[in-house]
């Protein structure tokens, strides 16, 4: 028997290639929507040391494996393990809208797990991606090339797309508007 889908609140996964600016846009959208108690921003759990440029929770590989069954969603990429924690399950069950940085490769599994999944695809030209990845200082030249070469396709068209070549404020405002519209539409549908 198939387990019940997580929800009824929507999960908005922000996906795209490394260097597209997903974390920057999510941080900006969080600031735009700070007064919305019905919109939650999930903090990813990662098997990477803290202080690597992303505000994430850190787990050892052993702790990650031990907690895997409690995660709302988990995946492996770039030699690391990533997850959305069990708080996401509770937020969605309460009808809240949850926003998270996700992975294109995990979209088929996410579609099987969540009652309402909305995909935001953030893109940028290859030369911009390379420059941003190199500026993070986490990867060597070969690692930058490997990240750029890894381009898993989307399994279906996204609900929203941002070509992140303008200012961070512009991209964040676009993302915040989409998130607010999605949350409002879901709240309205739940009342009918």
From TrEMBL:
Molecular-function GO terms, alphabetical: ATP binding; ribose 1,5-bisphosphate phosphokinase activity
Keywords tagged on the record: ATP-binding, Kinase, Nucleotide-binding, Transferase
Enzyme Commission number: 2.7.4.23
Catalytic activity line of the entry:
alpha-D-ribose 1,5-bisphosphate + ATP = 5-phospho-alpha-D-ribose 1-diphosphate + ADP
> Where along the chain is ATP bound?
16-23
**Could you tell me which pathway this protein works in?**
Metabolic intermediate biosynthesis; 5-phospho-alpha-D-ribose 1-diphosphate biosynthesis; 5-phospho-alpha-D-ribose 1-diphosphate from D-ribose 5-phosphate (route II): step 3/3
Enzymatic class = transferase
**Matching InterPro entries:** P-loop_NTPase, PhnN
According to its UniProt entry, the protein's GO biological process terms are:
5-phosphoribose 1-diphosphate biosynthetic process; organic phosphonate metabolic process
Question: Which regions form coiled coils?
Answer: none
Function comment: Catalyzes the phosphorylation of ribose 1,5-bisphosphate to 5-phospho-D-ribosyl alpha-1-diphosphate (PRPP).
Assigned protein family: Belongs to the ribose 1,5-bisphosphokinase family.
* Name of the molecule in the record: Ribose 1,5-bisphosphate phosphokinase PhnN
Write down the species: Aquabacter spiritensis
């Amino acid at each position: 028997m198939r387990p019940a889908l997580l929800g009824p609140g929507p999960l908005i996964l922000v996906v795209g290639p490394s260097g597209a600016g997903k974390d920057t846009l999510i941080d900006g959208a969080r600031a735009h929507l700070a007064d919305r108690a019905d919109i939650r921003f999930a903090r990813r759990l990662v098997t990477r040391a803290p202080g690597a440029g992303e505000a994430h929770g850190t787990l050892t590989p052993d702790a990650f494996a031990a907690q895997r069954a409690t995660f709302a969603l988990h995946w492996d990429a770039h030699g690391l393990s990533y997850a959305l924690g069990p708080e996401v399950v509770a937020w969605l069950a309460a009808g809240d809208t949850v926003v998270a940085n996700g992975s294109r490769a995990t979209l088929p599994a996410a579609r099987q797990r969540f009652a309402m999944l909305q995909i935001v695809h953030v893109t940028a030209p290859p030369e911009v991606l390379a420059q941003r990845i190199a500026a993070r200082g986490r990867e060597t030249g070969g690692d930058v090339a490997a990240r750029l070469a890894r381009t898993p396709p989307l399994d279906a068209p996204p609900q929203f797309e941002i070509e992140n070549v303008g200012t961070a404020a512009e991209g964040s405002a676009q993302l915040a508007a989409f998130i607010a519209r999605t949350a409002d539409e879901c709240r309205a549908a739940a009342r009918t």
